[in-house]
Amino acid sequence: MALPAPQPCIILVRPQLVENIGAVARAMLNCGLTELRLVAPRDGWPIASAAQAAPPHAPMPDCIAERLFAAASGADMVLRQAQVFPDLPTALADLHFIYATSARDHAMVKPWSTPRTAMPMVQQRLQQAARVGILFGPERTGLTHEDMTYANEAICIPTNPAFSSLNLAQAVLVLGYEWHHTLDAPPKPRALPSRPCTQGELHGLFNRLEHELDTAGFFTTPELRPTLVRNLRHALQRAQLTDQEVRTWHGVVTALAEGPKRRKVQP
Amino acid sequence: MALPAPQPCIILVRPQLVENIGAVARAMLNCGLTELRLVAPRDGWPIASAAQAAPPHAPMPDCIAERLFAAASGADMVLRQAQVFPDLPTALADLHFIYATSARDHAMVKPWSTPRTAMPMVQQRLQQAARVGILFGPERTGLTHEDMTYANEAICIPTNPAFSSLNLAQAVLVLGYEWHHTLDAPPKPRALPSRPCTQGELHGLFNRLEHELDTAGFFTTPELRPTLVRNLRHALQRAQLTDQEVRTWHGVVTALAEGPKRRKVQP
Predict the structure, then answer these.
(1) What is the structure's pLDDT at B184?
(2) CA distances from A83 to A44, A59, A63, A95, B158 (A)
């Protein structure tokens, strides 16, 4: 798996529920993000990362670790590479730019942006070889006023003002999703099962259908014929048929026009 | 709480885990969405909504309902207003436009878009007084090939190709988030010459056409019938017919099926 580098790292500050941490790992990997940092996770941590000879955390009981990995749904590599820190300044020391996510107004003087406007800036910083971290606060309270002082900028996810509190993994997903959009890989065109029909093929179908309708006496009011024909053609144009489908629809017209009689005479 | 109306409805097809349904309700309300429909939820449903005097579902055991509401984190109103349906066609009958979310390539000919490009179109449809539904498949398998035939368009959420499977509530959140973004600048509606057909009207056309094709002996190879029927339905979904056009196409099928014989006996 070749992931695009560089990327921002996701920093969970004092996360509480391991289910949320696992779901964060899954959401990150969905968006191609793999760098996770944890600041003082409530239930400790099961894995001593290679970068941390003396991991600054309590061991996580096995029964809790099981719930952690179950919630990650296969994004284990994000969890195994995660780094754990005892406090926020330590977790941020080697990074250059810090964004804090918050739903609350911290009455502070700091630039606010949305994920959509912030992520292109994050991408630009990364291209300039800066290391970027994005902070997410604990589930119940979010980041404190003091946590916010460690950030250069704040990001607010636009939500329903009457019900604004996002789940932790949902908030991470929105940021990751917007970051993934900055990768600027236009969606790959999907291979079609068959090629689009040419207009000539479509006109052939028009003519066949209209001929059969004339034969069947469909156009009972001659002055309405042009309007009806136009409407039928518009609908078929909108359908954007493939060449295979044009053949199928020819078959449909033939089958309906000839009815069961023709079939009966066949063996 | 004054929510902007109208809005798309979120349709969970055969959802399995109540934790996910609860998380969907929370994610919806975060984005200001409140219209939830459930098609054959695995564990039944606890609430008989006012709109459904005889709810078509098994009762959900209390111990499971507790997990459902816990996962919703206060978005109870979305759950209490949810409507439950026994199958997909019934759930869609009164809607006009259906979008299906899928990570898989269904090898079908149907327009594909991303949430970012699709949601402004959804908003435009809503401004034209159309009712829009967005389908989400079961957790393990996603939507089936047959489910996809009930949609006009498909939406693919751009994710890491090496780890693309989003949690159900995460997928709903991305769509809701993009929809919420369209609230900032709703595109100007353009008046339509006639209203879009409902899915129920379209299903009626499907049934009529397929019945006549059966009568006419169109499906000479029985094992190919499902594929052919799917292709015909996909083409008609793409055409996004109006109610007037559905009536016209009924007339087309009737005229072709009955042929000139019937007309000849008329004076």
Answers:
(1) 76
(2) 12, 14, 21, 14, 27
Q: What is the mean pLDDT of chain A?
A: 86
CA atoms in the 13 A half-sphere facing the CB of B261: 9
pLDDT at A265: 45
**ipTM of this predicted complex?**
0.75
Residue A185, phi-psi category: left (phi > 0), alpha (psi -120 to 50), beta (remainder): beta
Q: Count of CB atoms within 10 A of residue A165's CB? A: 18
Minimal Cα–Cα distance from B94 to chain A, Å? Answer: 21
Indicate yes or no: CB of B170 within 8 angstroms of CB of A165.
no
Between positions 188 and 207 of A, the ones with CB within 8 A of B are 190-194
Residues 6+ apart with CB under 8 A from A99: A8, A118, A122, A132, A133, A134, A135, A151, A152, A153, A154, A155
- Chain A (64-93) residues lying within 8 Å, Cβ to Cβ, of chain B: 73-75
pLDDT digits (tens, 9 = 90+) for B109-118: 667 789 999 9
Burial class (CB in 10 A: 0-12, 13-18, 19+), A81: middle
Token pair for residue A223?
A: 């002055």
User: With contacts defined as CB-CB under 8 Å, which chain B residues touch A235?
Assistant: 239, 241, 245, 249
Give the tens place of pLDDT for each residue, B31-89: 999 999 999 999 999 866 545 655 667 888 889 999 999 999 999 999 999 999 999 99
